[in-house]
Predict the structure.
Amino acid sequence: MAREKDNERYAYLYGVGSYWMAFEHSAYQLRRLFPQSETSIIRFVTYPFPVVMAAVSDAELYAYSRRHILRVTAPDRRVLTTEKLPVERYREWHRAEVEELA
């Protein structure tokens, strides 16, 4: 979560099985790149606010990576460079996701 606090230019993705997960700012950026990606709300005992997570399949990310250069390609982590985060739109999106999925 600390990485997401000031994240304005990247989508940090974490591999889980055949999916790639992103959280908070990265989740918003992922949704901008993959409008059909799925979202979920996660609540951590040690974190006071609901966290929005977005996910895309490995096949979708692979297809994307054939047309775009990924910033980082580690076995369990990918980093995509994105357009600058529009903070107000992110806040609106986050609020709507939490209300819809909570």
In short: The helical segments are 2-5, 25-33, 58-65, 87-101. The mean pLDDT is 92. Strands lie at 10-16, 19-23, 38-42, 51-57, 72-74, 77-81. The two ends are 19 Å apart (CA to CA).
